[in-house]
Amino acid sequence: MLKRTNLFYFLWGTGSKGFYILKFLFVLMYAEDVVSRLWELYPSGYYHINKDPFYLLISTVLSQRTRDEVTIPTTQKLFSVFGTVQQMAEADVDEIQELIKEVGFYRVKSQRIIDISRIILQDYGGVVPDSMDELLKLPGVGRKTANCVLGYGFEQDVIAVDTHVHRISNRMGLVETSDPDETEKELEKVLSKEEWKDINGLMVLFGKNICRPVGPKCDVCIMDDICPKLI
Ligand code: SF4
């Protein structure tokens, strides 16, 4: 019987335009299988401590270049002292630095958090905007951060592509891309819309535990029989 991974290598190896539609249809079915296996592996999904858009926004800014094990308690500590947009906007930068000093680039992030809070307070009446265009105007906010806020905070159908989603999607052959923004666009073509906002949380869990950046655990992986392992 023809194994799916053999078909994968054949379609990817041809380079022929004639196979484009076949390849696309193959990836559509393959993507559906990948997502269903992720749900099988993590039936409870993922958990967010707080889905308030402002909390998510600041938490995602803090998470840049920082592990979740540090980001989560640091965000909680910060919000236990400065719990509102107004309090954060009026905070002294030294106080913020002291509270978040465990995260990477904490000096830059401290000023950024104050700047973001002031803009939200002055330009948006203290309410985090719910559009990509407006979120991208905030200092230090890129598409990943904006999509985390839109997806988790506002329940919009968006794909937040972080390092795990980008790596796993390419490694598994769901996309062939060189940067996260491109991955977002390509994933939108192959994933059904109702899966968009969940794929980040599922792949982050999967990327931390199984398909790790270094030393992926292919021998115990639920995707082993279908994954081309493009490492
Ligand atoms: S089989 Fe290996 S490369 Fe493929 S998803 Fe699993 S851990 Fe990652």
Automatic annotation (TrEMBL):
Q: What does the record give as cofactor?
A: [4Fe-4S] cluster
**What's the catalysed reaction?**
2'-deoxyribonucleotide-(2'-deoxyribose 5'-phosphate)-2'-deoxyribonucleotide-DNA = a 3'-end 2'-deoxyribonucleotide-(2,3-dehydro-2,3-deoxyribose 5'-phosphate)-DNA + a 5'-end 5'-phospho-2'-deoxyribonucleoside-DNA + H(+); Hydrolyzes mismatched double-stranded DNA and polynucleotides, releasing free thymine
Q: Which residues form the HhH-GPD domain?
A: 62-209
Q: Which family does it belong to?
A: Belongs to the Nth/MutY family.
Which is an annotated GO molecular function term of this record? G/T mismatch-specific thymine-DNA glycosylase activity
Give the organism, scientific name.
Answer: Methanolobus tindarius DSM 2278
Q: What is this protein called?
A: Endonuclease III
What keywords is this UniProt entry annotated with? 4Fe-4S, DNA damage, DNA repair, DNA-binding, Glycosidase, Hydrolase, Iron, Iron-sulfur, Lyase, Membrane, Metal-binding, Transmembrane, Transmembrane helix
Enzyme class, spelled out: lyase
Q: Which residues bind [4Fe-4S] cluster?
A: C211, C218, C221, C227
Top-level taxon of the source organism: Archaea
EC number(s) given by UniProt: 4.2.99.18
Output the GO biological process annotations, alphabetical, semicolon-separated.
base-excision repair, AP site formation; nucleotide-excision repair
Q: Does the keyword NAD apply?
A: no
Please share the entry's free-text remark on the cofactor: Binds 1 [4Fe-4S] cluster.
Outline what the protein does. DNA repair enzyme that has both DNA N-glycosylase activity and AP-lyase activity. The DNA N-glycosylase activity releases various damaged pyrimidines from DNA by cleaving the N-glycosidic bond, leaving an AP (apurinic/apyrimidinic) site. The AP-lyase activity cleaves the phosphodiester bond 3' to the AP site by a beta-elimination, leaving a 3'-terminal unsaturated sugar and a product with a terminal 5'-phosphate.
Does the UniProt entry include the keyword Glycoprotein? no
* Chain segments annotated as transmembrane: 7-31
The record's section on SMART domains has: ENDO3c (SM00478), FES (SM00525)
* Cited InterPro entries: DNA_glycosylase, Endonuclease-III-like_CS2, Endonuclease3_FeS-loop_motif, HhH-GPD_domain, HhH_base_excis_C, HhH_motif, Nth
